[in-house]
Amino acid sequence: MVVVMISYQLEEQEVGELIQATTYAIVAGLALNRMITIAWELTGVTDARRATGVFLKLACEALRRGGHPSAYIYVIENGTKLGLHAHVLMHVPPSKARWFGYRQRKWLGCAGGIWCKGFIKTKPIGGSYRLANSSERYLSNLGRVLRYCLKDSDEQSRRRYGIRAKPTRGPVSGRRCQISRNLSASSREAAKRCGKSL
To answer: What is the pTM of this model?
Structure first.
Protein backbone atom coordinates (compact mmCIF):
# COMPACT_ATOMS: atom_id res chain seq x y z
CA MET A 1 0.00 0.00 0.00
CA VAL A 2 1.39 3.38 -1.06
CA VAL A 3 0.85 6.27 1.33
CA VAL A 4 0.65 9.64 -0.42
CA MET A 5 1.58 12.67 1.63
CA ILE A 6 -0.93 15.53 1.51
CA SER A 7 0.23 19.02 2.41
CA TYR A 8 -1.52 22.35 2.84
CA GLN A 9 1.48 24.66 3.05
CA LEU A 10 5.16 25.09 2.33
CA GLU A 11 7.25 24.43 5.40
CA GLU A 12 9.96 26.79 6.67
CA GLN A 13 12.83 24.63 5.37
CA GLU A 14 11.29 24.48 1.88
CA VAL A 15 10.80 28.25 1.84
CA GLY A 16 14.44 28.78 2.82
CA GLU A 17 15.64 26.43 0.08
CA LEU A 18 13.56 28.16 -2.59
CA ILE A 19 14.88 31.59 -1.56
CA GLN A 20 18.50 30.41 -1.45
CA ALA A 21 18.17 28.72 -4.85
CA THR A 22 16.70 31.89 -6.37
CA THR A 23 19.55 33.99 -4.97
CA TYR A 24 22.19 31.50 -6.10
CA ALA A 25 20.77 31.48 -9.63
CA ILE A 26 21.90 35.11 -10.02
CA VAL A 27 25.43 34.31 -8.75
CA ALA A 28 25.61 31.31 -11.08
CA GLY A 29 24.67 33.41 -14.12
CA LEU A 30 21.28 31.68 -14.39
CA ALA A 31 19.04 34.46 -13.07
CA LEU A 32 15.40 33.36 -13.11
CA ASN A 33 13.94 35.60 -15.82
CA ARG A 34 10.65 33.91 -16.71
CA MET A 35 7.51 33.18 -14.68
CA ILE A 36 5.28 30.43 -16.05
CA THR A 37 1.90 29.61 -14.53
CA ILE A 38 0.28 26.39 -15.71
CA ALA A 39 -3.34 25.68 -14.72
CA TRP A 40 -2.94 21.90 -14.81
CA GLU A 41 -6.35 20.98 -13.47
CA LEU A 42 -8.05 23.12 -16.12
CA THR A 43 -6.07 21.22 -18.79
CA GLY A 44 -7.38 17.90 -17.48
CA VAL A 45 -4.30 16.90 -15.44
CA THR A 46 -4.77 15.54 -11.90
CA ASP A 47 -1.09 15.01 -10.98
CA ALA A 48 0.33 18.53 -11.27
CA ARG A 49 3.70 17.59 -9.77
CA ARG A 50 4.35 14.83 -12.31
CA ALA A 51 3.09 16.97 -15.21
CA THR A 52 5.28 19.93 -14.17
CA GLY A 53 8.28 17.58 -13.99
CA VAL A 54 7.60 16.28 -17.52
CA PHE A 55 7.10 19.82 -18.88
CA LEU A 56 10.38 21.04 -17.35
CA LYS A 57 12.33 17.94 -18.40
CA LEU A 58 11.31 18.49 -22.02
CA ALA A 59 12.00 22.22 -21.85
CA CYS A 60 15.44 21.78 -20.26
CA GLU A 61 16.41 19.00 -22.67
CA ALA A 62 15.42 21.14 -25.66
CA LEU A 63 17.49 24.05 -24.36
CA ARG A 64 20.43 21.77 -23.60
CA ARG A 65 20.38 20.33 -27.14
CA GLY A 66 20.84 23.87 -28.40
CA GLY A 67 23.75 24.43 -26.03
CA HIS A 68 21.79 26.64 -23.65
CA PRO A 69 21.71 26.32 -19.85
CA SER A 70 18.53 26.45 -17.81
CA ALA A 71 17.52 26.47 -14.16
CA TYR A 72 14.25 26.62 -12.29
CA ILE A 73 12.24 26.46 -9.11
CA TYR A 74 8.55 25.67 -8.91
CA VAL A 75 5.68 25.44 -6.46
CA ILE A 76 2.38 23.59 -6.77
CA GLU A 77 -0.79 25.21 -5.45
CA ASN A 78 -4.44 24.23 -5.27
CA GLY A 79 -6.83 27.17 -5.37
CA THR A 80 -10.50 27.75 -6.05
CA LYS A 81 -9.97 29.58 -9.37
CA LEU A 82 -7.26 27.50 -11.10
CA GLY A 83 -7.47 24.26 -9.13
CA LEU A 84 -4.12 22.44 -9.13
CA HIS A 85 -1.57 24.68 -10.81
CA ALA A 86 2.16 25.36 -10.91
CA HIS A 87 4.17 28.57 -10.68
CA VAL A 88 7.57 28.11 -12.31
CA LEU A 89 10.42 30.62 -12.12
CA MET A 90 12.92 29.67 -14.79
CA HIS A 91 16.09 30.82 -16.49
CA VAL A 92 15.70 30.88 -20.26
CA PRO A 93 18.43 32.57 -22.32
CA PRO A 94 16.95 35.84 -23.66
CA SER A 95 17.81 34.83 -27.23
CA LYS A 96 15.51 31.80 -26.81
CA ALA A 97 12.53 33.59 -25.22
CA ARG A 98 10.32 33.62 -28.34
CA TRP A 99 11.37 30.08 -29.32
CA PHE A 100 10.54 28.88 -25.81
CA GLY A 101 7.11 30.53 -25.89
CA TYR A 102 6.16 28.77 -29.12
CA ARG A 103 7.13 25.35 -27.79
CA GLN A 104 5.29 25.53 -24.45
CA ARG A 105 2.08 24.26 -26.04
CA LYS A 106 3.81 21.09 -27.28
CA TRP A 107 5.41 20.39 -23.89
CA LEU A 108 2.06 20.96 -22.19
CA GLY A 109 0.52 18.28 -24.42
CA CYS A 110 3.38 15.85 -23.83
CA ALA A 111 2.79 16.31 -20.08
CA GLY A 112 -0.84 15.24 -20.50
CA GLY A 113 -2.52 18.63 -20.68
CA ILE A 114 -5.08 19.75 -23.25
CA TRP A 115 -4.14 23.21 -24.50
CA CYS A 116 -6.62 26.04 -24.34
CA LYS A 117 -5.93 29.77 -24.40
CA GLY A 118 -5.13 31.08 -20.93
CA PHE A 119 -4.21 27.71 -19.39
CA ILE A 120 -0.51 28.59 -19.56
CA LYS A 121 0.76 32.11 -18.95
CA THR A 122 4.31 33.38 -19.31
CA LYS A 123 5.81 36.73 -18.46
CA PRO A 124 9.31 38.15 -17.99
CA ILE A 125 10.53 38.86 -14.48
CA GLY A 126 11.75 42.44 -14.22
CA GLY A 127 9.93 43.62 -17.33
CA SER A 128 12.31 42.06 -19.85
CA TYR A 129 13.99 38.70 -20.33
CA ARG A 130 17.24 40.57 -20.95
CA LEU A 131 17.22 42.52 -17.68
CA ALA A 132 17.55 39.53 -15.35
CA ASN A 133 20.62 40.46 -13.36
CA SER A 134 21.45 42.31 -10.19
CA SER A 135 19.75 45.56 -11.25
CA GLU A 136 17.44 47.19 -8.73
CA ARG A 137 14.42 46.86 -11.03
CA TYR A 138 14.99 43.15 -11.60
CA LEU A 139 15.66 42.36 -7.93
CA SER A 140 12.59 44.29 -6.79
CA ASN A 141 10.33 42.49 -9.27
CA LEU A 142 11.94 39.13 -8.49
CA GLY A 143 11.24 39.70 -4.78
CA ARG A 144 7.57 40.43 -5.46
CA VAL A 145 7.19 37.43 -7.77
CA LEU A 146 8.93 35.09 -5.34
CA ARG A 147 6.82 36.26 -2.39
CA TYR A 148 3.71 35.63 -4.50
CA CYS A 149 4.92 32.10 -5.29
CA LEU A 150 5.57 31.51 -1.58
CA LYS A 151 2.08 32.58 -0.48
CA ASP A 152 1.24 29.08 0.78
CA SER A 153 4.11 29.25 3.28
CA ASP A 154 3.74 28.47 6.98
CA GLU A 155 2.84 31.45 9.18
CA GLN A 156 6.36 31.93 10.55
CA SER A 157 7.82 32.19 7.02
CA ARG A 158 5.03 34.54 5.93
CA ARG A 159 5.90 36.92 8.78
CA ARG A 160 9.66 36.57 8.33
CA TYR A 161 9.66 37.33 4.59
CA GLY A 162 6.77 39.79 4.48
CA ILE A 163 4.49 37.55 2.40
CA ARG A 164 1.10 39.24 2.17
CA ALA A 165 -0.58 37.51 -0.78
CA LYS A 166 -3.63 35.51 0.24
CA PRO A 167 -2.76 31.80 0.57
CA THR A 168 -4.67 29.14 -1.38
CA ARG A 169 -4.10 26.42 1.25
CA GLY A 170 -5.67 23.74 -0.95
CA PRO A 171 -4.45 20.14 -0.53
CA VAL A 172 -1.52 19.00 -2.70
CA SER A 173 -0.36 15.39 -3.02
CA GLY A 174 3.39 14.87 -2.69
CA ARG A 175 6.00 17.63 -2.64
CA ARG A 176 4.74 21.16 -3.17
CA CYS A 177 8.02 22.48 -4.58
CA GLN A 178 11.12 21.52 -6.51
CA ILE A 179 14.49 23.05 -7.41
CA SER A 180 16.60 22.18 -10.45
CA ARG A 181 19.71 20.19 -9.62
CA ASN A 182 22.09 23.01 -10.58
CA LEU A 183 20.47 25.28 -7.94
CA SER A 184 20.21 22.61 -5.22
CA ALA A 185 21.87 22.73 -1.81
CA SER A 186 24.60 20.31 -2.98
CA SER A 187 25.38 22.51 -6.02
CA ARG A 188 25.50 25.60 -3.82
CA GLU A 189 27.84 23.82 -1.38
CA ALA A 190 30.10 22.66 -4.22
CA ALA A 191 30.28 26.25 -5.52
CA LYS A 192 31.19 27.47 -2.04
CA ARG A 193 34.02 24.92 -1.82
CA CYS A 194 35.33 26.16 -5.19
CA GLY A 195 35.46 29.71 -3.86
CA LYS A 196 32.32 31.16 -5.44
CA SER A 197 30.51 33.35 -2.93
CA LEU A 198 26.79 32.95 -2.40
So the answer is: 0.93
